[in-house]
Design a protein that fits this description.
Layout lengths: L1 E14 L4 E3 L4 E2 L3 E18 L6 E4 L2 E2 L2 H18 L4 E9 L8 H16 L6 H9 L13 E5 L8 E4 L9 E7 L9 H11 L3 H20 L3 H20 L10 H15 L4 E5 L5 E6 H14 L4 E5 L6 E2 L7
Parallel strand pairs: 5-7
Antiparallel strand pairs: 1-4, 1-14, 2-3, 4-7, 4-8, 5-6, 8-9, 10-12, 10-13, 11-12
Helix pairs in contact: 1-2, 2-3, 5-6
This protein binds adenosine-5'-diphosphate and ligand DP6.
Adenosine-5'-diphosphate (ADP) binds next to strand 4, helix 1, strand 7 and helix 2.
Length: 330
């Protein structure tokens, strides 16, 4: 029996990953940049044993069906090949984040699974190697290997595509992100399908790629200069450009709902009134508001007034993946 257990936090992209050039290896069309957060995370334990006759995947206490297990099995197979240990596994995972709701469960989920496999199979991977392995489970997961600001350099091959932490002099500790949970149910179009449909059919996709390259540079500069206004601006406009590609896809689709728009308009109004805050959204209706820690309580209270029915979650910068003590996987 080989056991391992790990915890990984979610990350939210400030400059989005949106499209793959290789779906098998999960090589992205563009580089992306994110902030790892402390509020949402996944804990996963895995045990490999020659006594098991198939891979079993429990999520939040529920045995998952064949389709959900297949995705995990595909990842386990990569880890098994890397270790040269070909035993079936029991995976037991707990999401402290709503699953498949645009709140980055795939990032924390697959990063935690990668960390647990690394420990269980004695792979002894460097963080770069672990980032490459996690990437093959879910692209955004490669960024959750690290805390703080992280850049996933797109690269051009399995070897050259991985995430790296960004030098920021701990500026991330001055920032906050407020999640407005507009809908935490699983979405209709997964990130994976949404981005593929966009790459294949969106009239605006080439322009998205040009914009993403320029936006990465702007975000790097903003982080270097600790320029919150510049980082907020590029975060918000990059998100809008990503979402614009889905409207120009065939068939067109959007992750926005009326409440998402209400939240965006509230951020605009707060900014007009002198508050320093910017929004971003992923593949789901939930809106995340980036602000500075010093303003975060006031902004939280104002958002709460606008969204009394919705749950709001305050998040600060989080850490990278960490090993946890293993007990025998339940
Ligand atoms: P999200 O916005 O939550 O990242 P995605 O559609 O991108 O939504 O990804 C959701 C998928 O990620 C799930 O359907 C599942 O395949 C995978 N996933 C989520 N949590 C876990 C977990 N704890 N362990 C393994 N896979 C997970
Ligand atoms: C909009 O990493 O979930 O959140 O690689 O297919 O598993 P797969 O996709 P995933 O996509 C994340 C898309 C995004 C933007 C981002 O996190 O960069």
């Amino acid at each position: 029996m080989h056991n391992g257990k790990a915890r990984a936090f979610t990350n939210i992209a400030l400059i989005k990953y949106w499209g793959k050039k290789d779906q098998q290896l999960i090589l992205p069309m563009n580089s992306s940049l994110s902030l790892t957060l402390d509020a949402f995370y996944t804990e996963t334990s895995v045990s490999f044993s020659k006594d098991y006759t198939q891979d079993l995947f429990y999520l939040d206490g529920e045995l998952q069906d064949e389709k959900a297990t297949q995705k995990v099995s595909r990842f386990l197979q990569l880890a098994r090949e890397q270790a040269g240990i070909f035993e079936h596994a029991l995976v037991y995972s707990q999401n402290f984040v709503p699953t498949a709701a645009g709140l980055a469960s795939s990032a924390s989920g697959l990063a935690a699974l990668a960390g647990a496999c690394n420990d269980a199979l004695g792979l002894n991977l460097s963080t770069t190697e672990l980032s490459r392995l996690a990437r093959k489970g879910s692209g955004s997961a490669c960024r959750s290997i690290y805390g703080g600001f992280v850049e996933w350099k797109k690269g051009h091959s399995d070897q050259s595509s991985y995430a790296l932490p960004m030098a920021s002099n701990h500026w991330e500790d001055d920032l906050a992100m407020i999640f407005i949970l507009i809908n935490d149910k699983a979405k209709k179009v997964s990130s994976r399908n949404g981005m593929q449909q966009t790459v294949e059919t969106s009239l605006y996709y080439d322009d998205w790629l040009k914009a993403a390259d320029a936006d990465i540079k702007k975000a790097q500069e903003a982080i270097e200069n600790h320029d919150f206004h510049a980082l907020g601006q590029v975060t918000e406009t990059n998100c809008l450009k990503m979402h614009a590609t889905t409207l120009a896809a065939s068939p067109p689709f959007t992750y926005w709902t009326p409440d998402s728009l209400k939240a965006m308009n509230k951020v605009y109004a707060m900014r007009d009134a002198g508050q320093d805050c910017y929004f971003t959204m992923d593949a789901g209706p939930n809106v995340k508001v980036l602000c500075q820690k010093k303003d975060s309580q006031k902004i939280y209270e104002e958002l709460q007034k606008e969204f009394p029915e919705q749950q709001l979650v305050m998040a600060y910068a989080g850490k990278g993946v960490e090993s946890l003590e293993t007990e025998v996987a339940k």
